[in-house]
């Protein structure tokens, strides 16, 4: 059955005349009349008694009207729910970021977000390689470099600074270096394979205060910032780490505070088509608020 004809029929049955229905539908009276006649021909019944004072539904017309009115009522309710869902944050939200930032900083705060928005189904994809947002491998990303894809929206959220850290146990056993040159005599933990790294000068500590002809070696190479963080906590040696990590634990001590490593800018990134998604908006605002509460 032609849906347009049913729509016209519903308007005529509600309005009681072709003219008033035409005003509602923005159609001429003759167009409305032709649609009703065509519908009556299709189902081979008369739907309206036509008289000088207007239109009256026939018995068959009353039965059809009851069904169509029910359908339109359900449709209107569905549209209202869809609009409500659009304006209310809910549904799956896949967040990707680095293993270190996700494990150390984000996971300790995501519980508050889940309490605020229980209808959002959050999943975290922690990886030091970038997932493809345009292919919907994730909905949003917190990245330590600006995105290269032109169809992604980005917002700068913080700047990460690298400092030198060790555990209290390590320093008690090995002493505290007072000058960068003294790093020659300490156990250094550095980043291993840097292929494709967004941070090419990650091992800057190996060159700080180095003296000509005096080799400096590392006791351990790890291809993960989080792995380095755990090794330092375990008392294995000294390493360069993002400064936010020291605020997330009590067993990191900054050494050689005059040394400042490179800085990294972090960005909140998501696809253009999700610009108006409420779950993206509320997570972005939550993230910015938590960063403001404990500056990175």
What's the CATH topology name of the largest domain?
D-Maltodextrin-Binding Protein, domain 2
Give the oligomeric state. Answer: single chain
Largest sheet: 7 strands, mixed
Count of individual domains: 2
Question: What share of the residues lie within helices?
Answer: 25-40%
Structure description:
The chain is α/β, with parallel strands linked by helices. The protein has two domains: 3-87, Orthogonal Bundle (Arc Repressor Mutant, subunit A); 90-296, D-Maltodextrin-Binding Protein, domain 2, CATH 3.40.190. It is 39% helix and 21% strand. It has ten helices and eleven strands. The chain has helices at 3-15, 18-25, 29-43, 59-87, 99-106, 110-116, 168-174, 225-233, 244-247, 278-293; strands at residues 48-51, 54-57, 91-97, 120-126, 140-143, 152-166, 189-191, 220-222, 239-242, 253-254, 263-271. The strands form three sheets. Strands 3, 4, 5, 6, 9, 10 and 11 form a seven-stranded mixed beta sheet that branches. β1 and β2 (54-57) form a beta hairpin. α1 (3-15) crosses α3. It starts with a helix and ends with a helix. The mean pLDDT is 88.
């Amino acid at each position: 059955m032609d849906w347009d004809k049913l729509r016209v029929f519903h308007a005529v049955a509600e309005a009681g005349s072709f003219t008033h229905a035409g005003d509602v539908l923005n159609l001429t009276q003759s167009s409305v009349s032709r649609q009703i006649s065509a519908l009556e021909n299709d189902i081979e019944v008369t739907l309206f008694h036509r008289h000088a004072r207007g239109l009256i539904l026939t018995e068959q017309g009353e039965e059809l009207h009851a069904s169509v009115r029910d359908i339109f009522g359900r449709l209107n309710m569905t549209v209202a729910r869809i609009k409500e869902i659009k304006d209310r944050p809910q549904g799956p939200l896949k967040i990707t970021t680095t293993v270190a930032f996700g494990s150390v900083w984000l996971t300790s705060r995501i519980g508050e977000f889940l309490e605020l928005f229980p209808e959002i189904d959050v999943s975290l994809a922690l990886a030091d390689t970038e997932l493809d947002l345009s292919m919907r491998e994730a909905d949003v990303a917190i990245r330590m470099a600006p995105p290269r894809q032109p169809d992604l929206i980005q917002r700068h959220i913080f700047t990460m600074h690298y400092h030198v850290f060790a555990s209290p146990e390590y320093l008690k056993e090995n002493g505290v270096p007072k000058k960068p040159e003294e790093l020659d005599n300490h156990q250094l933990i550095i980043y291993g394979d840097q292929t494709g790294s967004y941070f090419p000068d990650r091992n800057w500590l190996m060159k700080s205060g180095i003296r000509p002809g005096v080799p400096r070696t590392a006791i351990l190479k790890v291809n993960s910032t989080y792995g380095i963080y755990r090794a330092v906590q375990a008392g294995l040696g000294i390493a360069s780490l993002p400064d936010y990590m020291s605020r997330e634990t009590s067993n990191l001590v900054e050494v050689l505070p005059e040394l400042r490593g490179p800085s990294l800018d972090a960005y909140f990134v998501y696809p253009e088509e999700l610009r108006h998604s409420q779950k993206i908006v509320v997570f972005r605002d939550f993230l910015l608020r938590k960063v403001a509460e404990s500056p990175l």
